[in-house]
Amino acid sequence: MAAVGAGRGFWARMAATGLGRWCRSLSQDYSSALRESLASARRHPLASASTLAALSAAASCAASVPGADSFEAASVEAAASLLLLSPGTRSPGAERHVQRLLRRREHGRLRYRHLGLIAVVYEAPHGTGTGLYAGQCRYLRPRWREAPGRLLDVGFWGCWWVLRYRLRDCDVNEDEFLALPPRLRRMEPEQLRSEHNERLFMAKYEPVVMEDGDG
C-alpha cells in the first residue's frame, strides 16, 4: 500500500510541474478539437465524407510513389524486353528512349526527387561527384525554364508513366509505315475486328471458281 501511495504522490507531483501542466493543456486542446470535428462531421456529413475520401486517396498515392530503385529496375527490364525483339520489329522511339535512360544512368546523370504525391526523374548536366567548374558553380546550373526538356519520367501510383507510354506497341516498327499515306498509318480499334475484315479473312478458305472465259 505504501508503494501505491508513493506512486500516486509521484504522478501528482509531476502533474503540478510545468511539464505536467503543458501536457494536460495539450490533451485538453486535442480533445476539444476532436469534439468540434465530430460535431462538424454530424452537421455536414457529405463534406466530411468527401474530405475523408480525398485525404485517404492522397495518403494512398503518397504511399505508392515508386522509388529510385524501381525506376532503375524498370529501365533495365525495358531494355531486356527490347532485346528479345528482332531489330526489324523494334519501335525506334522506344529504343531511343530506353537507350537514353541507360546512358544517363551509366554516366551518373539521373536524379530522383520525391514530391509527396508523385516522383520525378530528370537529367542532370553532369554526373555525381564531378569536379568540373561548370558542375560546381551555382550560376551555371540549369534554369527552371529548361526543366521540361530535362524531365525523363513521372512516377505515380506505383508506375513510371512515361516509360510505360514509350513501351506501348514497342514491337511495332513505325518506320515501316512511313511510305503509306497518312490516313493509312493509323488504325482505329473498331477496324481491327470489323465485319468487312472478317469476311475477307474467311473468303480465303473458299474454293476458287473458274469461269469459262478464264484461262
Write up this protein.
With 215 residues, the protein is of the alpha+beta class. It has helices spanning 2-16, 18-43, 45-63, 68-83, 92-106, 133-136, 147-150, 161-166, 189-192, 195-203, and strands at residues 110-114, 119-123, 151-156, 159-160. It has 10 helices and 4 strands. A 4-stranded antiparallel sheet has the order 1-2-3-4. Mean pLDDT is 80; it is low at 1-7.
Q: Roughly what percent helix?
A: 40-55%
Average pLDDT value? 80
Overall spatial form? flat
Distance between the termini: 121 Å
- Order of strands across the main sheet: 1-2-3-4
Radius of gyration: 32 Å
Number of strands: 4
**What is the number of helical segments per DSSP (H or I, 4+ residues)?**
10
The low-confidence runs, each spanning 5 or more residues with pLDDT under 50, are 1-7
Proportion of beta-strand residues: 5-15%
Structural class: alpha+beta
SSE sequence, one letter per element: HHHHHEEHHEEHHH
| Sheet with most strands | 4 strands, antiparallel
Q: Notable features of this structure?
A:
215 residues, alpha+beta, 8% strand, flat
